[in-house]
Model the fold of this input.
Amino acid sequence: MKIFVEELKEGEFITDQVFSIEEIQQHKTRKNNPYYRLTLQDRTGEIAAKIWEDDFANCHVRNVERGDVVKIDAQVQKYNDILQLIIQKLEKTEDYDITELLQTSDKDLDQMFADIKKETDELRNSFLQKLMKNLFNDEDFVKRFKRSPAAVMVHHDYIGGLMEHNLEMINIAKAQLSSYPEASKDLVIVGCILHDVGKVFEIEVKKTAMQKTKPGWLIGHVVQGYEFVKSKLPEKFPQNLWMKLGHIIISHQGEVEYGSPIKPAMLEAAIVHGADYASNMAKQYQRALQLGEGKEPGFSEYQRWIKTQVYVE
Done:
């Protein structure tokens, strides 16, 4: 019987339990002894794990990579009030139920979609409201949108992650809009929902890991998103309004080195970019806290995307 991450309890020993590999790296202790650090996941979340040198013989990790599924025996420990697994046996397996392993938002997918739709139903601009109705009348798109992650890795990289990210952004942006009444609330709300809409076409699931599609690699989510939204514009949609919304989509990453073809040049674009950044960063810090301490006491492993170790005590 499958034991999920959210069900793990301190002190128990689990046997023949199946998880997918989110990350695996070899490290050395302060005494220069090798060990492996892993991040394992299932649909309920992720957990840090270690393989100490004494257990290498029983752990077949040489050909294990991100997205693989493994069967493990492990001790559940708590370190600095955060659970981790000490793996004593590990082997790859093809015997698994993928619905148990794909990590999913802990928020209800249908409710998140209803919350997003409520935001669009309350738009005052009739053209933006018609645009969102065109999008949400596309059943294939809605099915993809509700399950889409917001990224391959780094932040909100799980089923439903895109909607969760969008709603976080809307909450952040609304707080900022109260200080900037000259900004168009409708443009900002729609921008928060559509800034990453190309992720629906950029990302797919391979094994149990998120990865980019071929168009994702060759074209990217910014262009795919821009073109998709353009294809859904209602008749007589004002050209100037589309120029503004299109600008928000293509500038949302802020800097050219982070993937934006152009920097934000509108107040609304700046608010959307700021909300995107804030949601992204906070999620990365939260994940580091959840995974707990790394090799340095009191701090997480080095987080390469935010370029620091996170204080976890």
In short: The two ends are 34 Å apart (CA to CA). The longest helix spans residues 267-291.
